[in-house]
Amino acid sequence: MTTVAVLGGGIGGLAASYYLCKSPQVTKVIVLESSSRFGGWLWSTRRSDGAVFEHGPRGIRPAGAVGRNTLNMVDDLGLGGEILPVTYSHVASKNRYVYVNRELHRMPSGISGLLRTVPPFSRPLLLSVATEILVKKGKEDDESIHSFVSRRLGKELADIAVDSLCRGVYAGDCRKLSVRSCFPALFNAEQRRGSLTLGMLLGSGPAPVVPPGPLAQRSVEESWAQWSLSRGVESLPESITDYLQRSGRVQLHREAAVQRISPSASGWTITLEDGVMSADHIISALPAKALSSVLPASCQPLIQLLQDISTVTVAVVNLEYEGSVLPVEGFGHLLPSSEDRGLLGVVYDSVPFPQHNRPDGQTTRLTVMMGGAWFQEAFGAPEAVTEERLLARATEAVSSHLGVTTAPSWSRVTLQRDCIPQYYQGHYRRVESMRSFIKEKSLSLSLIGSSYDGVSVNDVIFGGRTAAEELLGTV
Questions:
Q1: Pairing state of beta strands 343-347 and 3-7?
Q2: Which of 136, 194, 245, 384 has the highest CB neighbour count under 10 A?
Q3: Dihedral through CA 354, CA 359, CA 361, CA 367, nearest 10?
Q4: Spatial distance between the Cα atoms of 96 and 159, rounded to a whole number of angstroms
Q5: What is the pLDDT of residues 296-337, one digit of tens each?
Q6: Does the model's pTM come out above 0.85?
């Protein structure tokens, strides 16, 4: 294996390149990124006065094999000293809110929260959990998240908590999203143990083995719920990019949009706007639809499967207010689709990460997320909506939900087009079919990125590692 081309310089493509660099079997890695920057959706604004704002993911979870894997990489890159951990005992971890019936409600947490009836719920959550063990196992090989949770835990929990959660994580509709692909731990718990409760207690199946490095061990000892970096999460792709440049084996190309890829005798021919490259193997970290548009006609079945993966557009509005303006302390609040379809939630950024506030004077940073699966319905076509309209809608939400009467002193509106893939029912079958086609045709092609095996930063990084290992053995 001499030359590997990585298509896409987001976190997935950079992670795959990082793991490829660990192996002496690879002589050259070529990273082709169509935009002017690496890092994809990991994108932070660092203001000259020290304030940091995130336009994509903001907190990364340390839990599980994929969480440990990311922390091991952070350690290896020398970023350990920049970690900003948020522990489970922190107010941002304990207090998460939903906005229902035009009111903020703290989500139940801890044993007392499960034992009592807490609005907006009409009965103690422990009742739903206790009776769940008696529910029969589903017969389908996949179902929507809403149907699964309604069946096992009751419709109220599905309508409020799970609907809100899916809007917060996927900006998507839990009535269409697949439980098997979006929440595999829940699906596997039912399949293997017949119950979510037993699955949680006894484990819901095998997980990848990733030994914890010093930082991952520290995260367990100190009980971290999530973490960020002192200069924002974009520090992670920036550090990987520096590492790749120093390795001497990686060619990094910005503004290098791939026009076409064609199989050749030795692997692939890659056509760019200004020339042609060849590679023995391609790792595609492109979104599914972008890959579908550069594949040759001989890959028609794969092209069709890739085009079937939908994405949603999210408007991210960063706001800064002078003073301390929040009526509650916590991570933020989400809204079920029954409350306001266009508004997904508000993150109280200053609570988990006060280090990102500007150092002088008290300020409050908030991020309002809007649109997602409801973007078109709420705002019309993404190309036609104005920043002014999105900003007005965001500040109006902060005012009505949180009672903030002043105007923000600073704001930024970012329209993240097609940013989150939607794993609709049957998604796992589509992905299996894609990989079967690649195998049958003996194509030297790996598919990674958020279109296939998980949308979290951890999942995407781990997908990059998996692709490198499948190609070269353990890295």
A1: unpaired
A2: 194
A3: -40
A4: 17
A5: 999 999 999 999 999 999 999 999 999 999 999 999 999 999
A6: yes
